[in-house]
Amino acid sequence: MSRVKVTIRCNNCGEKFILRGRRDKGKVDTGFKQCLCNNVEDFEVEELAL
């Protein structure tokens, strides 16, 4: 498992979240569920290794 910095931007309202997560088996887990505008699907996700 490796640590990554994840930037999540909501495509509905434009809210931006910067989180730390772990890469495990090709998938990143940050615990992020939904945006403040109740959006749960439409996001732009960017990863950077720490």
Structure description:
The structure is a single chain. The protein is mostly beta strands and 50 residues long. It has one domain. Strands 3-2-1-4 form a four-stranded antiparallel β-sheet, with no helix packed on it. 4% of the residues are buried. The model has no long low-confidence stretch (mean pLDDT 94).
In short:
It is built from no helices and four strands. The chain is mainly β and 50 residues long.
Tell me the series of helices and strands, N- to C-terminal.
Answer: EEEE
Sequence stretches where pLDDT stays below 50 over 5 or more residues: none
Indicate the proportion of strand residues.
Answer: over 45%
Number of helices: 0
Provide key terms for this protein:
elongated; 50 residues; single chain; mainly beta
